[in-house]
Write a structure and sequence with these properties.
24% of the residues lie in helices and 22% in strands. By secondary structure, the protein is α+β, with helices and mostly antiparallel strands. The longest helix has 18 residues, at 64-81. The structure holds a DNA duplex. One of its GO terms (cellular component) is nucleus. Pfam families: WRKY.
Length: 192
DNA sequence: CGGATTTGACCAGCGC
DNA sequence: GCGCTGGTCAAATCCG
């Protein structure tokens, strides 16, 4: 393991996908989900969760089980663990990849693995191993199409990537809070 | 030897 | 109230 020389080789394609031959990259983003601060309110939370589920279900909703579970997470975070002032951001990506582990520039420590009911594939749980950073990430393969990996990030890194140096042009940080700023650029990048 | 991973147990929330 | 399920913990194990 260790620090990859390229902090996020797997993510550059998000912005240059149009110009890359897919065969030259190991995988490509098929969808991205954005579950930001919808947790602040019940209505909006179900909205964002619902919409994210809809996106994820684009090809079979391997994430649907987790989605329903997200509701409980919402209550958990909102009512117990997190105040409104401490709303977590959450993003999920569906990527086509043979690998389950994607180097995003951060160092993750696996802390759990769980088989989920709606999926034959286990779900893996990771925490950011940086001290003081409580960002978590869940990784699982899509139920219907195991070529796709669903990666969900919970929270925002309170530090820079240990391997991040010169990628600030478009993405200052490979962190959920950075991504939430860029959803439109994912699509507009082709025209710019 | 230290850090990361594995894995079973435990806990909490939700639906019935 | 009970059972099911997802999420987390922590001891054991593995690996560099």
């Amino acid at each position: 393991m260790g620090c990859p020389e390229n902090p996020k080789p797997n993510f550059n394609f998000s912005y240059t996908d149009e110009g890359l031959d897919p065969s030259t990259i190991e995988f490509q983003v098929s969808d991205y989900l954005m579950l930001d601060d919808g947790f602040a309110a019940d209505d909006s939370s179900s909205q964002s969760i619902l919409s994210s589920e809809h996106v994820a279900s684009g090809s079979s909703a391997g994430y649907s089980g987790a989605t329903s579970r997200n509701n409980s997470i919402k209550h958990k975070n909102n009512g117990v663990k997190k105040n409104k002032t401490e709303v977590e951001q959450r993003i999920a990506f569906r990527t086509k990849s043979d690998m389950e582990i994607m180097d995003d520039g951060f160092k993750w420590r696996k802390y759990g693995k769980k088989s989920v009911k709606n999926s034959p594939h286990p779900r893996n749980y990771y925490k950011c191993s940086s001290s003081g950073c409580s960002v978590k990430k869940r990784v699982e393969r899509e139920r219907e199409d195991s070529r796709y990996v669903i990666t969900a990030y919970d929270g925002v890194h309170n530090h820079e990537s240990p391997c991040m140096f010169h990628y600030s042009n478009q993405m200052p940080l490979m962190a959920p809070n950075a991504w939430t700023l860029q959803p439109s650029s994912l699509h507009s990048s082709s025209s710019s």
